[in-house]
Amino acid sequence: MSLGQQLHPHLPFLRRYARALTGSQGHGDAYVRAALEAIVAAPEEFPTDVDPRLGLYRTFHAIWSSAHLEDVPAASGGGREAIAQARLARLTPLPRQALLLTALEGFTIDDVSYLIDMDAGEVEALVEEALSEIEAQTRAKVLIIEDEPIIAMDIETIVRDLGHDVTAIAVTREDAVREALADRPGLVLADIQLADDSSGIDAVKDILAEFSVPVIFITAFPERLLTGERPEPTFLITKPFQRSTVKAAISQALFFDEATAPA
């Protein structure tokens, strides 16, 4: 198999990565093209002691680094991708590379160490720096709608551990709507079955009628939401839940929330 045939399956993913790294498809494709031109001009210099995908990304990074690109242009268009790109653009180049290579491209820490020519400890520190910066960008006020005290306390601890503030813990539909209007949250975590037999679904509908806010449902009755008869929630966690699952859902919901996107 020729080198071109070995590299061809990886090019769509390299283009995706280059777009996320540079902020636009045009800029990203220019760097991918330059990397391919360098490989064609000197195929004997292409790494042969590693997987072809690693060699391709290594060549790309050599081209990208030599250009000393520091500023990522604002993403064009709108939607979730533009919001994500706005967050990534706030990161300095090395942490951005480390985060994208691990989280988006699925490379191991050792792989990234090879790709950007840094030791594994430095790569891990860069990833942590990037995640900390994104967490700072997505800090929010959170309303918890949950009538079971122990579960409510557990969720509150998770929220505060992530660096967010809890505006209130509501136990009924009426409480939830009142608290939401009194101090508009940036995120709502809601159970379905509430203390007075009122519905968390109805509470969320009332809140969303007043303003837009991301919602994560945490419930022992997911079948009440997964009916296929109406738009189903993006984030639905089943009780009993894993703390890591709740943390991941909170981070994901806020990462793509337009209200917390960098200006």
Q: Overview of this structure, please?
A:
With 263 residues, the protein is of the alpha/beta class. It is 55% helix and 9% strand. It is built from twelve helices and five strands. The chain has a five-stranded parallel β-sheet with strand order 2-1-3-4-5, sandwiched between helices. Helix 3 packs across helix 4 (52-66) and helix 10 packs parallel to helix 11. The radius of gyration is 22 Å and the shape is elongated. The mean pLDDT is 87. This is Response regulator. Keywords: Phosphoprotein. Pfam families: PhyR_sigma-like (PF22233), PhyR_sigma2 (PF22029), Response_reg (PF00072). Residues 141-254 form the Response regulatory domain. It comes from Sphingobium rhizovicinum.
Shape descriptor: elongated
Indicate the low-confidence ranges by residue numbers: none
Biggest sheet descriptor: 5 strands, parallel
How much helical structure, as a percent, in the residues?
A: 55-70%
Let me know the number of strands. 5
Structure class: alpha/beta
N-to-C CA distance:
48 Å
| Overall average pLDDT | 87
Order of helices and strands: HHHHHHHHEHEHEHEEH
Strand content: 5-15%
Helical segment tally? 12
* Quaternary form: single chain
Biggest sheet strand line-up = 2-1-3-4-5
Gyration radius, rounded = 22 Å
Domain Response regulatory: 141-254
Modified residues (4-aspartylphosphate): 191
Pfam family, one: PhyR_sigma2
Organism: Sphingobium rhizovicinum
